[in-house]
Structures are given as C-alpha cells and as structure tokens.
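Please decode residue identities from the backbone states below.
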C-alpha cells in the first residue's frame, strides 16, 4: 500500500527526531508530488499518523508533529468537535484534502463514527461554513452612515476569508448557501445599502456586487496556498522562474513592457490585503457618485 509506505517514512523521521514536535509535516500536495501518488493516498497517510496521535492539524500552519503530551489523548465525540476538526483540516490542507475518513482519523475515532452526527461530507461542509461565518459579528450600535457600515461589513468578511481560505471557494454568488450566519452578514450589508434609497431589485444587485467583489479577491487565498504547496516556490521565486517566458508575452506591447520594467526597478509586492482595501474604496466611491451620497 503506497499510503503505508509514506506513513512509515514520516513515522521514521518523527522517531529519529528529524521532525520534532511542532515541526511542519509536508502537505498532502507536497507528499503526492514527491511520491507520485494521488492526493487521496497522501491524505490517507497523514490520516493514519493522525489516528496514531503523531501529527495534528494547526490552523494556518498545516499539519505538524504532535507534542508527546498530546499523543494518544481522547475526548468524547460530538458534532461540534467533528465540525471544528474538519475546519482545522481545511484551514491547514485545503478543502480538497477533507474527507469523513480523515476527520475520523484525526479524532482517533472509528471510520464510521462521524456519520452518527453528520450525514456526509456535503452536510459537514455546510456546517463548517456556518460555523466559520459565525465567528465574527457586528456591534449592536452600527457606525453612522452607509459607507462606514459597509466598510466594516467588508472588512469583517475579508477577515473570515483570511482565517479560512477555503470559505470563498464553496459556491458561486448566483447560488448562495442557505446558512444562518451568512444571513447575518447579508443583513448588515443590506441595511447599509438600503440607505442609498434604491428599490428592491437594485438593492439585491448592489449586494451581489459587494459580496462578489470580496469573494472574488478572497478566492485567490486558497489558490496561492495550493500553488505554494504544489510547487514549493514562493511568489517571488515563481515570478523569477517565469521571467524568460515573459519576453514573448510583452513583445509588441509597450505599456505592458514599461510597467514590468519600472516594477523591476522599483520593486513590487502583490499584497491581496492592500488590493482588497483599494478596491473597496473604489467600489464605495462609485456608489457615492452614482447615488449622490
């Protein structure tokens, strides 16, 4: 079994101290690429080690070697623990690495045990999303003015996507998820937009525009995680590697070429947080201009 070979190799590295407690374990994408196996096979190897208590998911850090004190610890299985464990896996490895089997392994439970609390992966993902959207709320007394209120709503959603990059990947804006906690964010934004004095159809359109702008930027958060895990290259390293291919791309395009030349001289970092803030200001400026507010 290929997953067993991968698990044995990692188990040996942990035993020899090459991967000490707290050290990051290669991601499922990295393991899949290194061993020439499917993502599911690599995920199963990590699940085996998790079930043995050797590794654990660490939000925004990936899978890490568990401390000796935590190894073998057991707690009662509940729906909340299942959901929180699934969120930890998705935060660390991405939604593609999530499976009911993997959640059970991470919890040290029998493979079918989570099904007593959750009907399957589709239901689990909805529960995860609802829990994630519910992690941040809004003050009882909103700031004065539609613009400040909408700015707070946008930044709150962005912070949740930052914390859970997989969250922006779940559904197109044309098919909103029926989640109670997502509705709280929608109500906040709609209340702000309603101050523009628009009819119901325009109000709905503006809310879709607002939400899809944030989701559209946030969708790149998990994609960058995947690219980093798959290639092992940072953004800067990847751009340096692509430099030779840029020459024919900009040939005959003077503005494109000038931009790249100037950026090469001055330096440039593509920071999604900065782009989000800049785009939010432009969006709100446009609304203020259009509706005279």
């Amino acid at each position: 079994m290929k997953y067993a070979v991968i698990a044995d190799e990692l188990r040996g590295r942990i035993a020899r101290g090459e991967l000490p407690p707290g050290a990051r374990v290669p991601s499922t994408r990295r393991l899949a690429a290194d061993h020439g196996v499917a993502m599911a096979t690599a995920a199963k190897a990590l699940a085996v080690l998790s079930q043995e208590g050797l590794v654990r998911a660490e939000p925004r850090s990936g899978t890490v070697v568990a401390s000796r004190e935590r190894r073998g610890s057991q707690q009662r299985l509940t729906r909340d623990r299942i959901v929180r464990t699934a969120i930890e896996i998705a935060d660390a490895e991405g939604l593609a690495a999530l499976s009911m089997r993997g959640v059970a392994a991470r919890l040290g439970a029998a493979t079918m045990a989570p099904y007593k609390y959750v009907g399957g992966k589709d239901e689990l993902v909805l529960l995860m999303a609802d829990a994630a959207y519910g992690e941040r709320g809004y003050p009882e007394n909103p700031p004065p003015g539609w613009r400040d209120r909408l700015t707070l709503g946008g930044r709150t959603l962005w912070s949740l996507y930052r914390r859970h990059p997989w969250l922006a990947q779940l559904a197109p804006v044309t098919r909103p998820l029926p989640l109670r906690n997502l509705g709280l964010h929608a109500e906040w934004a709609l209340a702000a937009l309603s101050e523009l004095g628009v009819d119901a159809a325009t109000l709905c359109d503006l809310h879709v525009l607002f939400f899809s702008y944030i989701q559209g930027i946030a969708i790149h958060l998990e994609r960058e995680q995947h690219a980093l895990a798959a290639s092992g290259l940072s953004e800067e390293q990847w751009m340096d590697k692509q430099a030779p291919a840029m020459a024919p791309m900009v040939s005959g395009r003077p503005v494109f070429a000038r931009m790249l030349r100037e950026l090469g001289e001055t330096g440039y970092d593509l920071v999604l947080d900065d782009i989000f803030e800049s785009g939010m200001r432009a969006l709100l400026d446009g609304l203020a201009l259009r509706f005279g507010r």
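Observation: Residues 146-291 form a domain with the Tetracycline Repressor; domain 2 fold (CATH 1.10.357.10).
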